[in-house]
Protein 1
Amino acid sequence: MDETIILGLESSCDETAAAIVRADKTILANRVAGQEEEHRPYGGVVPEVAARAHAERLAPMVEAALADANLRLADIDAIAATAGPGLIGGVMVGLVTGKALAVATGKPLIAVNHLEGHALSPRLVGDVPFPYLLLLVSGGHCQLLRVEGVGAYRRLGTTIDDAAGEAFDKVAKLLGLGYPGGPAVERWARRGDPCRFDLPRPLKGTAEPHFSFAGLKSAVLREAGKLGTPDDTDKADLCASFQAAVVDSILDRTRRALDLAPDVTALVVAGGVAANSAIRAGLEALANRQGLPFIAPPGWLCTDNAAMIAWAGLERFRLGLTDGLDAPARARWPLDPNAARAPGAGVKA
Amino acid sequence: MILGIDTALSGCSVSLLDGSRQVEAMFELVHRGHAERLPLMIATLLDAHPAARGAINTVAVAVGPGSFTGIRVGLAAARALALAWQARCVGVSSLMATAAAAFAASPDPASLMAAIDASRGQVYAQPFARNDGGLTALAAPRVLAPEVAADWAVAERCPAVAGSGAALVAAALPALTVLPPEWTDAGWIARLAPYASAALAPRALYIRPHDARPMAVPAA
């Protein structure tokens, strides 16, 4: 039996995390510390604040994970660390920590693409054969990918401007709903009327399954402006209408991607925005209509964590894919390097 | 044995001390790319001194002030190595390492100002006095304009200034003597680590706060 054990490190955005995963899919330790308190005064993630917090917390978190698993570093077979994409200061803290642990112990290093961590995460909690269609929705990404194997991705669609999670955060900010914005918008939306405001569904019906959320966010801003000082009902209705537009857009784009990838075995959603229950419910209904299994990893595996990094590291390690100590930290690192630039894509896409 | 690490400034360096004897020292002026270079240097050092693996009981690291990113690269590496080897992890100020190296290289001045270029027209500065073969900080470190640092040097009776910001301070007051070194290195970080007056917690000494400003509280 394969009893390989991998230590995973994650520090690419505002979660500091360390986890230990065994090849039989047992999660021996899974520590995550968010930085919401540090970033709240600024209304969003500040890269330098995040990097400072990662540098303080990561080493003690590795010790805590080892204690949770009742293991010593000598029991670990390889060290997997997120090497990007993400906020470079934080990525460096995690990657250098991983490299130093590898040097000190003589164990191999695996420089993991954070997006591959999300992409392979469903295989940590279930048996999901390749190829599958992945909707990756988070604060930094919104992509549809045909996952063909470890390290093999075909990008079918991406956002040409904001990520879905970014749109949630911006709407929360402009309505003064607090930080983090995604869960706040979802909470307000539950009490609101999704039909009150007629908001656009950008790119709906277009041939390539790309996304756009910047115009939708601006439309919310305009409606909020017309209201002057929105009361609680207005805010709830705006949130509900906005969320309905996002769900509509995501379902239309995902349906289109399924047309382009008819051989997939499942529809999988991952990333922080996958925690949104309206999006989950819509995708599940879509998968049912298409006769496909719908797989959404549990919430704790959708938001940033190190268990998915350890797991992606394990999948790579099994294929002999390890990295040198000079592996670069990368702010940008597309899963499908051959994907053409999306038409009309802005600088962030 | 003590392993020294310094990536806080433009140099990337590692050193190995056996008691007070330096058995290895590597230094490269890299300016950036510490995260790619440092782990390889540590691996090279350990390959050259295999016995060090079981013998290093202290990992000493430069904690700044300097490049925010560089400081964190060194700290992340040092804390991870110390964790893996169950060694002590000690931070050493880059200003004190500058002053110690300058006193060692120049026998004359009884006191001097260590100054590190902080960019944006500022320096990190701190005055030090020589004593009993060692050195003492005369005040806490500050980040300030070179002219203000020059006035401070005069007030603290420092005739000389050393470090990557020394030329900036001396340009404001040419009467100040510029002493080497320009850069710190891991040798001095390791040498200072055993002294209680030099040993700091392994935490970044940023001195300059980050730039983010809290947003206005939204109207309720």
Protein 2
Amino acid sequence: MSLFDKFQPLLQDRQSLLGQDVDPFGAPIEEIYSPTEARINGRKTILAGTNNYLGLTFDKECLDAAHAALDELGTGTTGSRMANGSFSGHRALEREIAAFYECEKAIVFTTGYQANLAVISGLANNEDTIVIDADSHASIYDGCRLSGADIVRFRHNNPDDLDKRLKRLGERAANTLVIIEGIYSMLGDKARIREFIEVKNAHQALLLVDEAHSLGVLGERGRGLVEEAGVIHETDFIVGTFSKSLASTGGYCVSNHPQLDLIRYASRPYIFTASPCPSVIASTRAALKRVENGADLRARLWRHAQRLYRHLHDAGYELGPEPCPVIAALLDTREQALALWRGLHEHGVYVNLIFPPATPDGKSLVRISVCAAHTDEQIDKICEAFSVLA
Amino acid sequence: MASYEEILEKVIGELSALTATDANLTENSELVTELGLDSFKVLDLLMDIEDEFDISMPVNLLADVHTVKDLAERIHAVINTEPGT
Ligand SMILES: Cc1ncc(COP(=O)(O)O)c(C=O)c1O
């Protein structure tokens, strides 16, 4: 069998399902007008699938900071921090993130994906066990694999099931890394974090929470589910990304365990990749300040999310379990989901189309992410499009 | 302690519920290529099996599992090395 033979089924599947129409898995964004509007495939379109929760992609202070850093420090760092050194911005951002969480230690990574790879594979090795939510993001699965640890899954968002699985580990449970997410990226449900903390404490396990979709979205100061639930200091490791609410790219981990710093010397996804560009670091620092003072943006975001969720629910869509800035309409077949995605595209609304196995329970999803920068009129239009297509 | 045959029977039971092709479900059926289970269905099956036998069976043990027989043998091995079972 040639190297390329394995692509044949994928190619056939894509051709039969998608035909010649616009590719939902690589929609051509021709021009960006604002955080919430773009020209896609020749059509002016409302962006409702960007993860740009606070709408900071064109924030003046973020843009200014990025421009200044570009001029002062150049376009790239051209290497990893271990080889090429840490720019003052990298170190400042780490101090600022640590201060934001009131935690001892913070490390910045080049992407959120790499943050999970680096932290998980840095912490655990082939003598350890990691217990993860069955619906974890691919970066968590990949980090676990890279670590070589034993991987045990527990049923999605089910603390009792975690408890049962930790019990089965016997003495090994005491050193086990447990991984959950703040808001789950596909259905927008929140982790039952307080119960998870109780379970992990009972077994003396360690908890890592990935706040990719909850940073900026939950908590008074936008610190995510750990803040909303009041468990920042009971959580061993908090991981997150700059690519959603912070509107750039990169990732981080914070912890009160002093050993976090040593991951820099023991983790391939930190060592063997170039550090974030100066302009990215600069806009992220500006965005972090805005997030911390972003109660106004969060209020708008949640108001939009509640309204859209209620509207879709009343229009008869099957949705994720609770209102959230991530709203997923669940469809039984890929064809139904694709038809809805296409219909929305024709109505000038861009959302995400997600097929199994990236989705829970074999369903297909049309996934919306709401943005604080959406106007009420844009939310009206999204509602109308879904109503017409229901 | 469950015998290999008992384990095989239970695995086939779980699988027939999952695949609806029980007619030709045998020891040698291939989980992915033949029964059409995607990677997550296999992982979910593993969670059910852990509950059924009250064992801990890490996902990475599935690395070389291709057939129903491979799976049943792997479970058998885990059960026979688990302390207290
Ligand atoms: C839960 C979760 N973790 C990590 C990531 C990876 O983040 P990034 O896209 O910034 O690499 C994502 C998003 O893609 C995510 O949804």
Protein 3
Amino acid sequence: MSHGPSAPAHAAPAHHDHAPYAPVFTPGSARSNELADLITRYPDQRAALLPALWMVQEDRGWISDDAMREVGDQLGCTAAYVKGVVTFYTMYHQHPVGQHFIQVCTTSPCLCAGADDVVKAFLEHTGCKELGLTSPDGKYTVIEVECLGACGFATPVQINDEYVESVSPARVPEILANLK
Amino acid sequence: MGYPHKSHPRETPVLSKHFGDPAARTLDGWKARGGYKALQQALAMEPTAIVDAVKASGLRGRGGAGFPTGLKWSFMKIGDGKPHYLCCNADESEPGTFKDREIMRWTPHALIEGCAIGAYAIGAETAYIYVRGEFIEPIKRLEDALAEARAAGIIGDNAMGSGKKIDVWVHRGAGAYICGEETALMNSLEGKRGNPRIKPPFPAVNGLFGQPTTINNVETLAAIPHILNNGAEWYKAMCLSSPKSNGSKLYSVCGNVSRPGNYEVVMGFSFKEFLYDLCGGPLPGRKFKALIPGGSSVPVITSEEADTVKMDYEGFMEVGTMLGSGGVIIFDDAQSMPRQLARLARFYAHESCAQCTQCREGTAWMTKILERIVAGQGTYEDLDTIFDLAENMTGKTICVLSDSCAAPVTSGINKFRGEFEALIKGKRSSTVAVGV
């Protein structure tokens, strides 16, 4: 079940005059062609749902209700169905997150290695007050994540698409300084 | 080679032989190391002959259950007029397990070759490798290798000029431990929530897209080319103990140990020598206390029990635990078992798909009660409640996630009850070990 980051507490109140949604899969676009190509790998186009959601998240950083509706239209399912799927998986963001999304593994093998202190160090050095909240400058979001499958390299931290392995609290400032 | 350490002289590197060697990742590099000879050979064989060879090798599933691979393949009825599918389970998410990741990172062609052979052997034209969403580097390695293999005509409409169609695709998950359960994996691949399905029907009858399907772990499939290249007898002979366990096995070792990492030894290797010689023993000044030898879902054993084990499917069962995925988690005498088990229970509570009441409620309550004990607020009655919960969580649900939560917790309390009682008696919180 999804326990992803929550909406940033400092986020501006929702404005009602938001710009119209710009689709990801515009006919003739590279994304649209990519999706059409992907669908041919499966006997049922709905199997392309997880990959399509990944494309949205890569392009937009998160998956909005409008995007869920668009993906549903592309693959012949309802927005509600897509939302049901999005909310099942932990990696799809249902809210915008910081520019650097930092996931610290704290499951048992990493806990033995002191992962709790790594979490504290990231919270302290990023200015994120709490797990799941984005730092005031919008740069960082820190969450605890369940087993990253790199237990021999405790503590592994996933920052956007990259694994950083064998992280100790002392290395945290340098790791943050090296983020582009 | 070896990764992250150089292979130990007592290891038997078959799958891990090229770990740490970037040259093995490319098609040319893989061919120079004997790659795709087994596929070529397989495509000239009858599918049933491949299944027979795998049966004769004694290979058993490396994902955790240890089901004989050749027997599983034989359930697929060739020529039934239906499309068949092969799924490779690369959703490696079992705490303590990180072997498949290294196979995919260093030898992606080994897995592709295993998938292509497996697909042909079960009468499938399509294989999907379902990789957990976090494994972005392994996915990139696989995608690069697949592009090379496709461009070279090794896979595709006319695989290696055989006239047979074999497609292999990577499918990326999105963060859900439960999708490593085979029926949840199929649902997820179909674009659904990853809820496990009731069995029967079994995947061989009604699997992916409602068609006959076989699901094998990464390590299982990566072993297939070696079996065809060297012969079933060669594989079967890699055994120091029970004749029912054969071949080499990758173990991921983590926790409080001097040299964490992946190690490959033959079935029946002494666990004591493995832990103290290959893995370097405990950290300086510490002693091993408890181990979970097969990924977090199997019962906890004490270090004394571990000393007697022969590392194979039967050997681990003799001390009441399981070989499982081969993910060895080690806790030393500085660790609080109540705290570690509470954290483990939290993992299962987080990962429960919430379909079955026993699991949804059981994992959540087990976590709350254990965290209460760790916080110094527990009662003796809490321990009884945990065992009561565990009974309702075992053998009563669609899949074994709730069983997997109950097993380490109850075995941990049985073996380290003193630590729990000390917390209850003293009513003080613990982050480190307390007197047993």
Protein 4
Amino acid sequence: MLEIKDLHARIGDKEILKGATLIVNPGEVHAIMGPNGAGKSTLANVLSGHAGYTVTAGTATLDGVDILSLTPEERACRGLFLGFQYPVEVSGVSNLVLLKAAVNARHKFRGEPEANAVQLLAKVRERAKQVEIDAKMLSRGVNEGFSGGEKKRNEILQMLVLEPRLAILDETDSGLDIDALKVVANGINALRSPERSTVLVTHYQRLLDYVKPDYVHVLAAGKIVKSGGPELALELEQRGYGWLEEAA
Amino acid sequence: MEARVETRTQDNEELFRSREYKEGFVTDIEQETVPPGLSEDTIRFISHIKGEPEWALEFRLRAYHRWLKMKRPWWPHVHYPQIDYQDISYYSSPFAAKKKPKSLDEVDPKLLETYKKLGVPLQEQAQLAGVVDPSRNVAVDAIFDSTSIVTTFREKLGKAGVLFCSISDAIRDYPEIVQKYLGSVVPFGDNFYAALNSAVFTDGSFVFIPKGVRCPMELSTYFRINKGKTGQFERTLIIAEDHSHVSYLEGCTAPQRDENQLHAAVVELVALEGAEIKYSTVQNWYPGDENGKGGVFNFVTKRGDCRGARSKISWTQVETGSAITWKYPSVILRGDESVGEFYSVSVTHHFQQADTGTKMTHIGKNTRSTIVSKGIAAGKSDQSYRGLVRVYAGAEGARNHTRCDSLLIGDKCGAHTFPYNEIRNRSAQVEHEATTSKISEDQMFYVRSRGISEEDAVSMIVNGFCKDVFKELPMEFAVEAQKLLTVTLEGAVG
Amino acid sequence: MSTKATATGAPLESWRRLFDETVASLPGDAAQRRRQLERFMATGFPPKKGVEHWRYTDVTALARTAYAVAQRDKAPSFRRLPDTDYLVFVNGHGVEGDAARHGLREVADSEHGNIVALNAAFASDGLRLELAPGKRLERPLYVVDYRSGEAPSTSHLRHRITLGDNAEATVILDSRGDGHYFGTAVLEAKLGAGAHLHLYRIQEAAAGATDLATSFVSVGRDAAFEAYSFDLGSGLARHDFNVTLAAHGADVKVHALTVADQRTHVDNQVKVEHAAPHGRSRIDFRGIAGGRAKVIFDGLILVDRGATKTDSDQRIANLLLSSRAEVNAKPELEIYNDDVRCDHGAATGQLDPVQLFYLRSRGIDEMTARELLTLAFVSTVLETVPNEPLREMLRERVGQRLQAALAAEAPAEASA
């Protein structure tokens, strides 16, 4: 589904990704871990098309299509979803309006008629309940005045409504208490299916207790330096990253 | 609000296709037009053709002589060539003098067609475009160049005691009321354009709400400039007696012409004790083309006088049109505990220039005012917020809160903020907050990463930016305003 | 800024006569001075109406008053700060301090009219501080500008500060006086790349004085300019403060405080122009007006077309002690670039009645409570002064000025 080969990217003059390679097949959950500044968020942002990063070498394809040349919205309509590390506030634009526009953008992309507003609303409400977001919050501005935990749950809500084929969740677990973490994990698990894949970018092993990954990768100094099964996460928890950074 | 925003999103696709100024057509109709030129004779002619009493002519002539000694204001942040006032025709009417149609059947079908195209209902059974609830009627005064074509629902309103007609009719039919209030809020020598208007004003609306009456329906005036080389000199007067209430809407369009047209208006509002006037404008005069050719010069003096205690005047404006806008709807807070409000969205694109804002003059005790201004500049346009809050020494406990935000789209436009806070009472609390920025890249990336196109993302973020003002508009105007915003910013990004 | 001032006619002739009497005793090129005088004669004093940035201050009386050139005099005594160098001007002439640090050789022709031209024609002396690249002024330079006049007198100073790349200096300009006088001071300062200038302006003009200062500061690449302004006088004072962020990455901070009572008139016109990318500016003004005082603060942030990534913020806060006083706050933005973040806020009001009640409920009398809260209001500006002896001296002078202003308002109105 997702194939990243020898990806190099930089912000300004600073090279962050230095040849990252990763293959994600349908139905798989991958966790990418690594020390601060290793390039985890950069990888997530580059895949989603953030204009602040420049790709200098390598390729990334989604279902065989080169996504690096696409706009962020084209990537999204092709089934890519980025859960932001720091969800953005968009004042005056309600969550419902954003979701509706996003769903219809996908319909239009696929040449389908607009979504039925009543059905869509029912679906959003139901998903909101799933991630414990009050229905009233749906009418508020996107992330406007939301607490840190609410913002993260709102990201999961958007994911559940938009049903992406590939979700990249950038530290969606950080800053959450254990209850909120379970809610987020349940949301991620709810979307698991043989057609969909998930990439969890995380700092901590904790999330992986609730969302069992198929593979765990370590990103250090802009490269995947080690890959393994769920047991690798436990090892990292015990040994830290030092031993891998030296190897890189 | 939810429903309105969603309506807009659905309409997006259609909107983005209709790139041009769709009100830019000309009605091909024979008009009685006086030759260009301004003199005492022109004024006598206008007064005569409207069958005015002597005092009205005197008012005009005094204003004219004052105007001759005045200079155009030098301080607005706008640039335009000298206007040749002898090159403008001051009167143009689609029907012969004193042959105003008595009913719709007598109105030229071309005119009816014009208003139909503009979505303005002249049949009482019809609806203003966008009205969802069929039980909500809106009375319309339709003004075409220098004359009022028809005023709907006069009879129904009359039963409630509400007078709603053109100012020309009012001067003839209710001279004592008009004489008492005309020029009492905006004196004829107030400023250059107000003086000009007082000398040559042609038509506008007159509203009188008697004591204790809540006007049974929304009132509206639709201004249309049609004829080339004519000026439109709107004059509107609204009086709300004690404990009465009225909501009034105003819309404006003009054909697409290469030369500039002048619209110099004076609007006076008087609110007596406990009365409330809500005045909403969606201004969509022809803005000129993308090269800055043509467009309406919109020089307007709008002022409300909260004359009675606990009265309230609220201005809401959405300004998307005109080549040049010079406009400061103001409130004089004379009555104790009176309230003034100003909510404004101003959008400029291409070569448009706007210098707009408000004046809140606190005289009475415990008076309150709120100002919310949202400016959006795109293309090579230039816009300024200019707002004065003045608290006189006697205005114990006066309160003002001003919020003033500007959004710039592109690096060739300008957005400016000129607030004046003049405070002479120690118990006053006056707060002003302002921001200027572009649409944040983070917001754009976030919205686009959800699959929404760049243009839709801009439109969505801009509408969100204006939400605090749109929510003050009557429902049908809010829908209209959001559409206009999108159309105005067409092609501003990328 | 438009200066469409027109000549006010015959009264200005007295200034020409004054010039003719004085020019021989003034340093530099007399012909050049005469050109400046003619420029002044053509533009005159700003008129009462029609010039936006003079809408709250009327100086037309200057044209009608017969001034004599102020006489040389000796320095009055004043308290001195430790580890500080002093330069003292009395009535426009340096009387104490390093001779190399003052003197006028030439006043360059300039475009400016009005008061700046008048100053160029009449200026008799001024600070000259030139630091070579990398040089640091080890001790603060304290410039006392004392003026006096029994009969109406006039004197004019022209200061110049030039800091080479990475040079650093702290300069304090303290203008004060006695009697009836009209003084102007024009400062031209230029900061090279990476230079740092801390500039203090303390104004304590006499009740009968008109003190008009104009400053032009150009801030170079990555240079930092920090200005502190204290208006504590009782006459008519105005400062036209023009700061240009001339090169990439310049950083400007302006802290200003005005305390005014009786018939004091203080007008601060701060114009910060962002002319280059990545500039950062901060303006923080606090004003207190009692008696029949008039306090004006007009802060304009101008962002030029090319000044991308500008970051600016302006805060204005005013406290009115009396309902016969007046404050006029005008936080302006003029922006010609979309890649900016410019905010401003202005608030005018009285002391918070809840806070006042709280203090009184703790047994503090109302007068003291007011004083405490008012001091708290001004201390945010005082706290920014990094030099401790200077800060303490300012705290004392501000405190005295405040006490006088508060005492004049007592007995205070009953609070809520």
